[in-house]
Input
Amino acid sequence: MTILYVTLGTNDVQRSRLFYDAALGTLGMIRKNSSETGQGYVPASWPAGGTECLLWVEKPYLGYPATWGNGTRVALAAATRQ
Output
């Protein structure tokens, strides 16, 4: 099984962009796609011609406020907890 992508909801695209750019940067990921509704991230080593993003942080598609999901879990690997 291959995960195509993971989407996390946000109610504030600009604030989430600042947070995820910094947090994911320490994990070796970069922002590859940006719009007024969200952004997409890939590993820094992602092929230049690749168009898919692995992690999306966006306003919910149906326009409802983003909230936490019951049972939703995303794990990202890092060299250390810091």
Notes: The helical segments are 13-25. Strands lie at 6-9, 29-35, 38-43, 55-58. The chain has one helix and four strands. The radius of gyration is 13 Å.
